[in-house]
Amino acid sequence: MAQFPENLQYTVEHEWVGGESLVTVGITDTAQDALGDIVYLELPTVGDEVTAGAVIGEIESTKSVSELFSPVTGTVVEVNQTAVDDPALVNSDPYGDGWLIKVDVTDLGPLLTAAEYQAQVGGA
Amino acid sequence: MTDTTDVTGATAPRRSPLHDEHVALGATLTPFAGWEMPLRYTGDLAEHLAVRTAAGLFDLSHMGEIEVDGPQAAAALDYALVGNLTALAVGRARYTMICDEHGGVIDDLVVYRLADERYMIVANASNVGVVVPALLERFAGFDVTLTDASLTTALIAVQGPAAEAIVVSVTEPRDVGAVTALRYYASTNATVSEIPALVARTGYTGEDGFELFVPAELAPALWRDLLLAGAPSGMIAAGLSARDSLRLEAGMPLYGNELDRTTTPYDAGLGRVVRLDKARPDGTPVDFVGRDALAARHGSEPARVLVGLQGLGRRAARHGYPVVGGTADGAPEVGHVTSGAPSPTLGYPVAMAYVTPEVSGVGTELAVDVRGRREPVRVVALPFYRRPDKA
User: At what angle do helices B240-249 and B44-53 cross, to 10 degrees?
Assistant: First the structure.
């Protein structure tokens, strides 16, 4: 059963955002489950400017590949190298050790609450 | 054949006779060729690697089983298919194809000869609805009966180096000798878990393995027995996702990817299945549907060749991506990818692709346009993975 932590915000593209000005970004439990075993992450690098709604990376599993959209506008301040080295972390702990990037935010994009996101994906 | 229809009139996917087993195992189910089948259970990689190192248990009940009986069964199949089925010995199986009159592939098939006048054809689920009417049309005038047993037959595959020991452990003692003696692409009747089965040493993974054809209503008991029997060896249930990555590593074509109506067996490097030399005992050639087109195609230079590509970067080429002459801007398009994925066994991306003959040589450096960025690839021999010889 997919998890939707209440303290996070979400996008229709299945990213989650934690925090307000310095935010952590990852993909949702629903997204990692749909992808299957993730074998490769392509993420932006520290210092990159990202724009809410723009493609900033790729997440590849044996079965499929998915684009990563930035949920926020700002500057990348940290990239989860541990997850890049061991992408299975994104499957096993998508809201924890499987986070992807941290962004110093100038503008939050359109975000959903946990309940709104859950309604979007039809999860129970 | 009828689709199950719900009250709104929408067509609901068919469920495997093992559906409840998949739900109990927590499988992720996916629509596939009109069926709802397990995509994965625990995880794609674990399932893939279990098949390479121990064994995997697959539900392939969506596949079509078509029985052909009668005094002219062999002759009818020789006319309907590109292979020489008269020459197939009882108890053996053959990979073959049904082509249209232009030589295009309608489906790729495995044909089992069960008796002198009895064959079973295994067709792709997505094509059963086309193959059955095509066969019926081609069988007109032959003394032969066709029975579509797809919905009453379950197919369970045990694939991997531990498969023989696992299948033997559920086989009635008197049948064990016949099962262990099976060669690749051979079959025998055997009782497994007290169920009458056709046990075949066939598969689609590149490993040793067995396919067990059983009556649909008896399949759940066999599935559960096999899961228990295989657990100590590390066997796990494996879904369609692992099946696809396994067959890709093994260089095996998938209908809809490497094969379709616009493709001849020669394009796919499978010209060996076309038996233009089929002849009656008196030496007169046997006609078959597609023969003239395939004979013409056989003698001409191919427009495209199916090759293996090894990815030199980390991003995998996927179905439909353009193959280009190199990583430089402006390098011309030379083909397209038919199947591609990161290879779990090899640790790098692999793909199959149709390319023009001049760039099809092993060692040729090309590139694939992976979502706007050209990733370097090298033409390599197929298969990508070959199982180690038995010690």
Answer: 50
Pick from A42, A61, A65: which is nearest to B44 by CB? A61
User: Would the CA dihedral through B371, B377, B383, B385 be positive or negative?
Assistant: negative
Q: Are the Cβ atoms of B44 and A62 closer than 8 angstroms?
A: yes
Look at the block and give the residue holding tokens 């629509």.
B31
Q: Which of residues 207-246 of B touch A (CB under 8 A)?
A: 241, 244-245
Nearest to A36 among B44, B314, B371 (CB): B44
CB contact under 8 A, A39 and B342: yes
| pLDDT tens across the length of chain A (124 residues) | 788 999 999 999 999 999 988 999 999 999 999 999 999 999 999 999 999 999 999 999 988 899 999 999 999 999 999 999 999 999 999 999 999 999 999 999 899 999 999 998 875 4
Domain range for B56: 14-63+152-249
- For residue A62, the chain B residues in CB contact (below 8 A) are 44-45, 48, 241, 245, 341-342, 344
Q: Positive or negative CA dihedral for B275, B243, B214, B11?
A: negative
Domain assignment present for residue B100? The answer is no
- B39, B342, B344 member nearest A40 (Cβ): B342
Does B387 map to a domain? yes
The pLDDT tens digits of the residues spanning B164-215 come to 999 999 999 999 999 999 999 999 999 999 999 999 999 999 999 999 999 9
Specify the amino acid at residue A4: F
- Is A9-104 assigned to CATH 2.40.50.100? yes
* Distance (Å) from the alpha carbon of A99 to chain B's nearest alpha carbon: 20
Put simply, whether B318 touches A (Cβ < 8 Å) is yes
Q: Residues A47, A48, A51, A56: what is their CA dihedral angle, to the nearest 10 degrees? A: -130
Residue B22 lies in a domain: yes
Whether B39 and B181 map to the same domain: the answer is: yes
Q: Nearest C-alpha of chain A: how many angstroms from B49? A: 12
Cα–Cα distances (Å) from B280 to B85, B94, B113, B243, B295, in that order, read 12, 19, 19, 39, 18
Question: Do B306 and B388 reside in the same domain of the chain?
Answer: yes
* B240 assigned to some structural domain: yes
Nearest neighbour of B342 by CB, restricted to A42, A58, A62? A62
List the domain boundaries for chain A.
Answer: 9-104
Establish if B48 touches chain A: CB-CB under 8 angstroms.
Answer: yes
Q: Which of B239, B272, B307 is nearest to B108 (CA)?
A: B272
What domain count does chain B have?
A: 2
Q: Which residue has the tokens 């095509």?
A: B134
Q: How confident is the model at residue B3 (pLDDT cuts 50, 70, 90)?
A: very low
